[in-house]
Design a protein that fits this description.
The complex is a heterodimer of chains A (about 300) and B (about 325). Chain A is mainly α and about 300 residues long. Chain A has 12 helices and no strands. Chain A is elongated and about 85 Å long. With about 325 residues, chain B is an all-alpha fold. Helices cover about 70% and strands about 0% of the residues of chain B. Chain B is elongated and about 75 Å long. The two termini of chain B are about 15 Å apart. Classes of the chains: A mainly alpha (about 300), B mainly alpha (about 325). Chains A and B meet through helix 1, helix 5, helix 6, helix 10 and helix 11 of A and helix 5, helix 6, helix 9, helix 10 and helix 11 of B.
């Protein structure tokens, strides 16, 4: 197990390097200059600006220099926001915001999805089952921005229970986290329900009931532990969905996270910021994928990672 | 799986009465008996035919030299709520929302379909080669898939869309189609590879090899027919994800360029027009209903296909 984790950690480096390379090449293939909006600049100033962002050097040298700035965490000043370092001034304050929102949404999706799945599998074809599955249908059939807007319209503007935007207090986190969690929660509920129904008809469940085990133990300790395995397999894609979904949700709720920088930096050709943001997201997704795989091995003793 | 099972000899009376069913026919029978899956299929048929009718009507207007309904502003004050003349109402620019929803359906469905086609072509081939070759080739090819999985795809799509921003609508749409298709084959590659790894050990593959079949023959003639169900299921479940991704990009302003519409751009425009004072509910409700019906239909049909092709489901 420890060896497996170490080996997976060793894969981090080539994976991140490849992602950095693809992002760098795409960035350079895109037409247009980062300075296109700074019109009427004297040629000397333009040259100096280009030199500041290594743009006067060969592409290979730019590739190495940007990588050095990122790896040493020294960062580089942003093109769009002059005098602001992309790591220290832009991403460092925004990252905890996006991370806490993402973790809250992921936790919410797992808890709500699992609970809904278990409840509907425990009483199939009951009112609980139909309600939970109808909710899951809404979750998988509408884009997150529609769900977010509906939540704002209902709980923010009509009922006035929760704030419609901003960041800082826990109540401001409820609506964005719900909007982000809707799709993964719906998938998890369906996965858990299908898995539970299959396992509840297995022989060892009949044995467990026959020996007089409380229904709660049968459902949670015997059935859920098996039925939860597909969910772990889905956690990687779920994390990706939540963190990329945050681009949209952060925009709707005016949350000062990393998501807005991701899209804007690409649109404005802010090379240092693009590379730093891509690497940040890539590292995040790789770490969460590893955590999901380790959880898989921990929950299912049949899986051995030699 | 594709070849019909050989007819049982007539000595067995039951077999004489009922001809043996091919696995495909049995899967189709299981699918037809699944009420949810058939509901999904019916939803899909309705939405797809409505979108096609919309395009036909639009082309008919063009042929008669009339303005195209989806892009032509009407006279009067707008947006108007649904009425007999305009069942879905009109948008803030005075265009008929029914025509726009139907045209948008064609764009959204086209995005989904192209993603499915790309994932079938690239994903299947990638998975087949990777799983069959094994060892170093397998590791290398799957590592590439892992890396592409880790790459936040939105950046790729944004850069590709910006690259062609100045070009024609059709070229930009092609890029959008390819960009979404280009990231949706990864799941297919993983699923197919997993199946190939299992099939590689199957006895009929050993038999084919013993008979002297080459790798290409084993892959395409022996393994591919056995993968048809898996590929079909995976492709069906790719379509709703691609449609959702398109709507996500539309919200970021990277969807199809106006005046063309997709369900994503319609919903996104409706949300921009949303305000607490005047509620233009029809702008949001109709495109979202169409989107929801399609996604539910695809998910139900996909789940039904999976149950139908799953050998464990009797």
């Amino acid at each position: 197990m420890a060896g497996y984790i170490v080996r997976r950690l060793l894969y981090f480096i080539p994976t991140l390097l490849a992602i950095y390379t693809v992002a760098f090449l795409l960035m350079h293939a895109a037409p247009g200059s980062p300075f296109v909006q700074e019109k009427g600049m004297p040629p000397e100033v333009l040259e100096a600006r280009k030199a500041e962002f290594y743009l006067d050097r060969p592409v290979l040298e730019q590739y190495v220099l940007y990588a050095r700035d990122l790896v040493t965490l020294r960062g580089h000043s942003s093109i769009r926001y002059p005098n602001r370092n992309v790591i220290h001034d832009i991403l460092a304050p925004a990252f905890p915001v996006s991370l806490s929102l993402g973790i809250c949404a992921l936790g919410l999706a797992v808890v709500v999805g699992t609970a809904a799945g278990v409840a509907s599998a425990a009483r199939p074809r009951s009112a609980i089952d139909y309600t939970a599955m109808a909710g899951a249908m809404i979750g998988i059939s509408q884009p997150s921005f529609v769900i977010a807007s509906l939540l704002v319209a209902i709980f923010g503007l009509t009922l006035r229970w929760l704030p419609v935007g901003g960041w800082g207090s826990p109540s401001q986190m409820v609506l964005p986290a719900t909007a982000l969690a809707a799709l993964p929660a719906a998938y998890i509920a369906r996965l858990v329900r299908t898995g539970m129904l299959e396992i509840l008809s297995a022989d060892f469940i009949r044995t467990a009931r026959a020996k007089g085990l409380a229904e709660r133990h049968v459902l949670l300790d015997h059935a859920l532990r098996n039925a939860w395995l597909p969910v772990l397999g889905y956690l990687g894609p779920a994390t990706a969905a939540i963190f990329t979904g945050s681009f949209v949700v952060e925009k709707i709720f005016a949350i000062p996270g990393v998501g807005t920088h991701f899209v804007d930096s690409a649109l404005h050709r802010d090379h240092p910021l693009i590379l730093a943001t891509v690497l940040l997201y890539a590292a995040l997704l790789v770490v969460f994928n590893l955590a999901a795989d380790v959880g898989y091995a921990w929950l299912d003793p049949r899986i051995r990672y030699e | 799986m594709s070849d019909p099972a050989p007819q049982a000899p007539l000595a067995c009376p039951v077999a004489a009465l009922r001809p043996a069913m091919s696995p495909l026919a049995m899967a189709m029978r299981r699918f037809r008996r699944n009420r949810l899956a058939m509901t999904g299929l019916a939803l899909l048929v309705i939405v797809v035919s409505a979108s096609l009718v919309g395009v036909v009507l639009n082309q008919a207007a063009v042929a008669r030299g009339l303005p195209e309904p989806y892009r032509t502003p009407l006279a009067g004050l707008h947006p108007q709520p649904p009425s007999l003349g305009h069942p879905f109402g009109t948008d803030p620019l005075g265009r008929d929302l029914l025509a726009r929803t139907l045209i948008g359906g064609c764009v959204s469905l086209g995005v989904g379909l192209s993603a499915a086609v790309v994932s079938i072509l690239i994903g299947t081939l990638w998975g087949l080669v990777s799983g069959y070759a094994g060892r170093g080739v397998d590791t290398a090819m799957m590592r590439i898939v892992d890396v592409l999985y880790g790459l936040p795809y939105i950046l790729l799509v944004i850069l590709l869309l910006v690259l062609f921003a100045e070009k024609t609508t059709w070229l930009r749409m092609m890029v959008l189609f390819m960009a979404i298709g280009g990231v949706s084959w990864l799941t297919m590659a993983r699923v197919v590879r997993g199946q190939v790894l299992a099939l590689k050990e199957a006895e009929f593959v050993l038999a084919a090899r013993a008979l002297g079949s080459g790798s290409a023959r084993i892959i395409f003639k022996e393994m591919l027919p056995n993968l048809a169900g898996t590929i079909l299921v995976c492709a069906t479940l790719t379509v709703p994800l691609a449609i959702l991704q398109e709507s996500f990009l539309s919200f970021l302003g990277l969807g199809v360029p106006p005046p063309l519409a997709s369900w994503g751009t319609l919903a996104s425009d409706a949300i921009d027009a949303l305000n607490p004072v005047r509620v233009y509910w029809w702008l949001l409700v109709f495109p979202c209903l169409a989107l929801g019906a399609t996604l539910l239909g695809l998910n139900f049909a996909g789940d039904g296909l999976r149950d139908a092709f799953d050998p464990r489901a009797q």
